[in-house]
Every structure is written in C-alpha cells, then in structure tokens.
Specification:
single chain, about 325 residues, alpha+beta, RNA Polymerase Alpha Subunit, Chain A, domain 2, 3 domains, 4-stranded antiparallel beta sheet, about 45% strand, elongated
C-alpha cells in the first residue's frame, strides 16, 4: 500500500513537469510566431493596385460621359499598411474627385485631364500613408465630359396636405422659383415637361406655412442649379354654403327649365363668403339634345370662382318647356 502511494506521487510530479514543459513550449512558440509576424509586417512590400474614380461637383451644364474611370498605381508600404489596404474590398476601392477643387484642363474636343497626384493625395489619406509611398502609373488622369442640353420647365408641387376640420388650402401654393433650368442628355431632356418636387406632407394644419422642398431630379438623370424651392401654402378656415344658380339657355331658342336653378354646394373661405354670388357661376345646358326632343336635358356647372371648392351640384338633368 505504501509503495503504491509513492508510485502515484512520483507519477503526479512527472505529469506536472510534463504539463509545464508543454505550456512552456507553446508560450515560446506563440512568442516566436508573434516576433516573426512583427518582423514581416515591418518590412516593405510593393503592391500593384487600381482605384476607381468617382467624380463629384460636376458643373451643372456638363456630364461625365466616361464614368467608369480608374487610376493604376504601385504602393510601396510596410506590412501593417498593406494589411489595411487588403481589408478594403475591391468594390470599395474608390476615390472621390471634386471637380470644383481640382484644376482640370481641356485636352481636345470633350477630353479633359488633371494631375494623378490628386488621386494619390486621396489614397494616402485613406490608407494613412505618405504620398511618397505611392507611384502613379500615369502622370495624368483623362476623362470625357460633354455639354448637356438645357430647358426651362415649370415646377410642380407634389403635396399631401391634410388640414384640420373646417380648414383647407386656399388657392394654389406659391412656388419660388416657379420654374427652373434643367440640364441632361438630349434624349432625357426632350421628355421632361415639368420638374416635380419631393412629397410635401403635412397633417392637422390650421394655419398658413412656408416650407423648403427639394426637387426630384429623377435620381440624377437631370441636373439643375436649383436643388430646392420655397413653397408658400395659404390655409384658411372654410364654411359650407349653398348657391342657387339660375339655369338659362344660351341659344336664341326661348326655353324655360324646371327647376329653374341649380343648387351648388361648395366650400368657401370665410373671408370670401360675402363675395360669393350666383352671377359668379355659370351653368350650361346641352341644347343639342333639344333637337333630338329628349324629355330631359343634361346640365352641368361650367364656371365658378377659383377660390370656391365645389362639393356637389343638383340637378344634373332638367325638364324644359319651349316658349312660343
């Protein structure tokens, strides 16, 4: 029994020593790998690459007709920055060139160029390296830029304005500017008749307001020096009223209609209530039906004041009697 205990004690000491040896081996292995990795990362590497160029701040009357532009270069950087570069996905290797900040020049016809060092500046900032670590394959970047067609078109307000009960939009909203000059390829500009705004949405409105609304430039298919307009919307308190409008024949035939008036139910701003009169409305009877001797003639409201909102009219047909 005593011999067994001694044997177990010796075995336990050997196992502990073996475990310490294994752990010591792994620690030194990890340290060696880390040192090797640091040494490798501290060395310089030359990498050939290309970055796509995205043009911004293009003049409103021009467009880039060669959008798939790229610049090739060599990067002579250490392993740390090479690793950082490798982490950027190929589709994200893009530099933005603002044409209002880059001195570009006309080469011929519609071909322009600028120094490729402006691309190198952007990449150096992106990778946090020195610009001297970048060698551009070409001294210049060439791109094509064409003149756009232009047209002056009216602006149309796209809106969804919900007012409180008894309130309503008064008249047509005033837009400033009411028209804009748009630029685009001829095949696009020829189809543009108006420029709509983005949706102006309001709820529970009970007073007039002014809002700045962006223009909808068809997802970049067209351009304009104006990006937004000012919309002034008048809101007034409205009330319902009934107006009895006489029904009269416009032809030389003497006809008496039954009923003799059309009842027009409408909404009118309280400030205009006193100015609403039957003579502000015009009713038209379809006298061509009279020749066919129809028993009833169609009648409709033809004209009314711009500041009045029509709810309904009655009747839509009338009886008649020809007076000899």
């Amino acid at each position: 029994m005593e011999m067994t205990e001694k044997f177990d004690s010796i075995k336990s000491k050997v196992e502990r020593r073996d475990k310490r040896s294994i752990w010591t081996f792994f620690v030194f292995l990890i340290l060696s790998a880390a040192l090797w990795f640091l040494v490798k990362l501290s060395e310089n590497y030359t990498t050939q690459t290309a970055f796509r160029i995205q043009f911004t701040e293009v003049p409103a009357d021009k467009w880039i007709s060669s959008p798939d532009q790229s610049a090739k270069m060599s990067l002579n950087i250490d392993g740390f920055h090479t690793l950082r570069y490798k982490m950027i996905r190929e589709q994200n290797r893009v530099v933005s060139i603002a044409l209002d900040q880059v001195p570009y020049r006309l080469e011929n016809a519609n071909t322009y160029s600028f120094s490729s060092q402006y691309v190198a500046e952007q990449i150096a900032e992106l990778l946090d390296i020195s610009q001297s670590d970048i060698t551009m394959n070409e001294g210049k970047v060439y791109f094509n830029m064409d003149m756009l067609q232009s047209k002056v078109v009216p602006v149309v307000l796209k809106s969804d304005i919900q007012t409180q009960r008894q309130y309503g939009v008064y008249g047509i909203p005033t837009l400033d500017p009411a028209s804009v000059t748009v630029f685009g390829p001829k095949e696009v500009i020829d189809t543009v008749k108006t420029v709509r705004t983005e949706l102006l949405s309001k709820i529970n409105v009970n007073q007039s307001f002014t809002e700045i609304v962006p223009l909808n430039l068809l997802n970049g298919l067209i351009r304009s020096n104006v990006q937004e307009i000012k919309a002034e919307v008048q809101v007034e308190k409205f009330t319902e009223m009934d107006v009895a409008v006489p029904i009269r024949a416009t032809d030389s035939v003497r006809v008496r209609f039954f009923p003799e008036t059309m009842t027009v139910k409408c909404l009118v701003a309280i400030k205009d209530y006193a100015s609403v009169a039957p003579e502000n409305f015009g009713v038209k009877v379809d006298m061509k039906q009279l020749k066919d001797m129809r028993p009833l003639l169609d009648v409709r409201l033809e004209t009314w004041p711009q500041y009045v909102q029509i709810l309904n009219t009655t009747p839509d047909k009338v009886e008649y009697l020809i007076v000899q």
